[in-house]
């Protein structure tokens, strides 16, 4: 079980690949994702114990802060976030949907983690920068009041970094909308 995850997001693909190598060499971390994203950016997501992930992210940040879009360290990642990154969680009874749209992959993952820790919501889907100009979004589900609370907290996390594009809460979403999101 991963206790912490960390991510760096670079403007340069070459710098991202270099950071991936540096992060793996700096501390005992597992590279979870190391790949290009739109529009020509690169992300490296690592997991492990808190101290190792902290060292790894710190090393990557020191490599080239001027070429970095965003980064994070989440010391106690909520267990529902990693499956959402990998493709989504199945949700049976959708009372409301919330969408948090950001300018970076890092801020979307941070917003999702904050939302699920703040309210009784589940991340339904995360779309991370592929084919949408580098933007990302997370869709959360739960009861209306919980979704409103989760979207508010997650949006504050992204907004504090200047990365929030938009947020919305949709009570009782139409069945076709839910089907297309799954």
TrEMBL record:
GO terms for cellular component: bacterial microcompartment. SMART domains: BMC. Its main location: other. SUPFAM superfamilies: CcmK-like. PROSITE patterns: BMC_2. Signal peptide: none annotated. This is BMC domain-containing protein. The lineage of its organism: Bacteria, Pseudomonadati, Pseudomonadota, Betaproteobacteria, Rhodocyclales. Residues 4-86, 96-182 form the BMC domain. Belongs to the bacterial microcompartments protein family. InterPro entries: BMC_dom, BMC_shell, CcmK-like_sf, CcmK/CsoS1_BMC, Micro_shell_prot_PduT. It is found in: Bacterial microcompartment. Keywords: Bacterial microcompartment.
